[in-house]
Amino acid sequence: MGARKKISAEKRKEALKTMYFAKLQNVPTSPRKMRLVADMIRGMEVNRALGVLKFSSKEASARVEKLLRSAIANWEQKNERKAEDGELFVTKIYVDGGATLKRMRPAPQGRGYRIRKRSNHVTLFVDSKNTNDKI
Asked: Is CATH 2.160.10.10 the classification given to domain 21-134?
């Protein structure tokens, strides 16, 4: 690795130490379905977002709820205190496409239809309101 890349990689690592996030990778759900759930909670207060996810009928909401709880635990661990009501917010959440498994399904007259089993990666950032004002 060159010196310039090494310096930028170290800067990125230092920036991540001040951010509170959780990642969920290789989720066997299509990114489109996961983005519907992510859009529901983007910018929401954490306790309210947990309630929305708990009572959502979508299958992906259970996974995002578990990811949100993990991000809250990361925040609490880095700050060495418990999160209070109304303090934490979902600042950013984004869904990226993961690996696609390609399969074939038998079709009439000797043909084969292609099936794409999609997966995704979800990254969720939480932060308190007073640090959001500085950004």
From this structure: no
